[in-house]
Amino acid sequence: MSHPDPREELIALLPSLRAFAMSLTRQPAAADDLVQDTVLKAWSNFDKFQTGTNLRAWLFTILRNTYYSDRRKKVREVEDGDGVLTAQLSEKPAHDGRLALRDFRVAFDQLTDEQREALILVGASGFSYEEAAETCGCAVGTIKSRINRGRARLAELMHLNENEAMEMTDPATMAVISAGRTATA
Fold first, then answer.
1. Which of 97, 14, 103, 96 is nearest to 63 (CA)?
2. How far apart are CA 120 and CA 15, in angstroms?
3. How many domains does the chain have?
4. What DSSP character marks residue 52?
């Protein structure tokens, strides 16, 4: 006995599917979306449909299960029409930080040894000016000068404006360049 192609039979069942979807959603647009999702799932899973069984029941089960799955998802979703919550959850791509860090390293390598040393000790390692001066065997004023000149040179090499924020993922790097950016050499 030859059975009709279920794909052709599906098309004939679309009005019934839409009516059932309308009874569940009570919204024409939502019903149309639900029918579309059902047809898509059925079409991509026709290999699982057993020819000779009730296609209508199979389609209605898919539609019903899709509807209830969507409802369960919506219960867990939070309404965020203005995007405030989404903005708080977003994250800058990591590659931006890596690119900025690469630019920083190139600029940092162009500083004098003394400036790099002072910036690493005070900015990245958290030494006080006094501790850094003692480590380097120089006066506190010399360390302050090296740090000030080093930061100014970094800002210049990285083309940073006075009020421009430097976006880095590495707190130590930020500490090296952040303090005293407005000071001049």
1. 14
2. 72
3. 2
4. T
